[in-house]
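subagent[fold] <- orchestrator: predict structure for attached chain, return tokens only, no commentary.
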Amino acid sequence: MSKVIITAAISGAEVTQEMNPAVPYTVEEYVREAKSAADAGAAIIHLHARWDDGTPTQDRDRFKVLIDAIREACPTVIIQPSTGGATGMTSEERLQPTELNPEMASLDCGTMNFGGDEIFVNTENMIIEFASRMKERGIKPELECFDKSHIDMAMRLVRRGYIEEPLHFNIVLGVNGGAAATPRDLLFMRHSLPPEATFTVSAVGRHQLPLNVMAMVMGGHPRTGLEDNLQYTRGVNANNGELVARLVRIARELGLEIATPEEAREILKMPPLK
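subagent[fold] -> orchestrator:
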């Protein structure tokens, strides 16, 4: 069985410090949370940017400041900027982090309802645009799939040459408008992937831990962090390092080893860090 790659989604675009004071806004807070996650065993830091007041942004320069600061504190970790941004942002806004040529970035594979009047828009042409930008710049896409239809869209674009193998998916469960955070839906989506693809599993709130564990047992990889879940147990806030450390402990109890960032690059068939 391959080693387990732990991703820490340290900030997100929706959670706030009013919900949990550990959610990072400032550069110093981002470094604190990224380092706590990396030191605990995370190989990948999934990164949404915020201004110091907590406002989500896809600003290229803000991403550069955050990436440079995290890289200084965590020299080998894989930093994976989000191109999802926040609802209502344009493609041009969302694509700004790709101008920094990161090793890896998220690529959302379908449109979905986010609740109320909010729609997270990813048309086929937008996905092609994002995939083409990543291919052109040598950025490894993590294919974000909130529903079975998103997997189908990704595979259609693979066949058309817009997305190149080897493929790495993130199965995201429990988000309003997407597939439910249930073992049934995880099994269905996992078995909808090409057998040679690697995959990570993300789940929201109280579903995060059980589906993270299920992912590891199935030969996949878990994503934890404050973007998806703010609490360690009901009513008890967490920080990113604590959430990663818990997964490391459970993985070891299951007889699994934790991948270093260098090993994660090998598993995902990415080039070594330059």
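orchestrator: received. Logging for downstream: The domain at 7-267 is CATH 3.20.20.70 (TIM Barrel). Residues 231 and 237 are 4 Å apart (CA to CA).
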